[in-house]
Amino acid sequence: MTTADDVMDALVRTTFEVAGVLTRIGGEHDLSLTQLRVLGILRDRRARVTDLATYLGLDKSTMSGLIDRAQRRGLLTRGKNPEDGRVVEVYMTPAGLELAQRVEDDIRRALAPATDRLDPEQLDRLVSLLDTVFARSSRTDAVPQVTRPLR
Amino acid sequence: MTTADDVMDALVRTTFEVAGVLTRIGGEHDLSLTQLRVLGILRDRRARVTDLATYLGLDKSTMSGLIDRAQRRGLLTRGKNPEDGRVVEVYMTPAGLELAQRVEDDIRRALAPATDRLDPEQLDRLVSLLDTVFARSSRTDAVPQVTRPLR
DNA sequence: GTCGGTAGTTGGTATTACAAACCATCTCAC
DNA sequence: GTGAGATGGTTTGTAATACCAACTACCGAC
């Protein structure tokens, strides 16, 4: 029988396993786990500093620093919002997008040995179970959002 | 159809979701994610500094610092190994064990809303799929280990 | 136009992490 | 046994991550 402990264990172990892979791959490109996430988020959108911070659960000042360093590396850019002079919008440079693509490919490759242990039907089930657990498929948010949520 | 991208996405999203919970709960007890892991590992065993570092993918010196701070807080202790004067064994104090227990309870509680979205049969399947993906059930290591692996 | 609130940055501190240099101890060759 | 090299940990120095508090700039309402 599966206990609450088993589930917690499996989730936590999986988390550290995947986080380890992400940390390793990130490190190969000189990116911390957090920077990796920032790149992932900004791949298909621009975002304001505070929204990024809120979404990542970080302080604004931490976000400032992360952006500073990534900007110094030429991975992303700060831009002004014409409607509100206070907000700073952050978006990727071509170099940043290219790096993000390379990292994504590496991550997929690094996870392949693990995911290859499942057949297509099992993969399907795993994805659907994880989506359910973390409420990707819930319809409770059917009310249109004012600002599109970050991922 | 489930693509490699879907799987990667689900795993990565799950990882950040769970890591977020762990970071939050840890923070409530003044523990970083890494310190949380150390406590988790040492709950039912003692370990040498280098083994901890290797297992966590950290440098020895990083491990030294982590142990220092946890020791200063009275959560764990350093002891000598009678067979080899070089090695330092690390193990929990009663206070550390107690804290670890509290944290574990909190984590279980924090994950409950998520895991409650699945019925017992689904939970069973999820755990078994995750165990397969990360090779918990593989029999390739049927040869007895010289030193018991850390988790 | 002033005032309270919001968006970001800056400065200060602790923690996390690595690398290099170091000390102590062990082991193996001789 | 003794010396050379390897191994286990700590120390020191540096960078990145993260928080908080204080600050600047701007918005909106009155």
UniProtKB/TrEMBL annotation, chains A, B:
<protein>
    <submittedName>
        <fullName>MarR family transcriptional regulator</fullName>
    </submittedName>
</protein>
<dbReference type="Pfam" id="PF12802">
    <property type="entry name" value="MarR_2"/>
</dbReference>
<dbReference type="GO" id="GO:0006950">
    <property type="term" value="P:response to stress"/>
</dbReference>
<dbReference type="InterPro" id="IPR000835">
    <property type="entry name" value="HTH_MarR-typ"/>
</dbReference>
<dbReference type="InterPro" id="IPR036388">
    <property type="entry name" value="WH-like_DNA-bd_sf"/>
</dbReference>
<feature type="domain" description="HTH marR-type">
    <location>
        <begin position="4"/>
        <end position="135"/>
    </location>
</feature>
<dbReference type="InterPro" id="IPR036390">
    <property type="entry name" value="WH_DNA-bd_sf"/>
</dbReference>
<dbReference type="InterPro" id="IPR039422">
    <property type="entry name" value="MarR/SlyA-like"/>
</dbReference>
<dbReference type="GO" id="GO:0003700">
    <property type="term" value="F:DNA-binding transcription factor activity"/>
</dbReference>
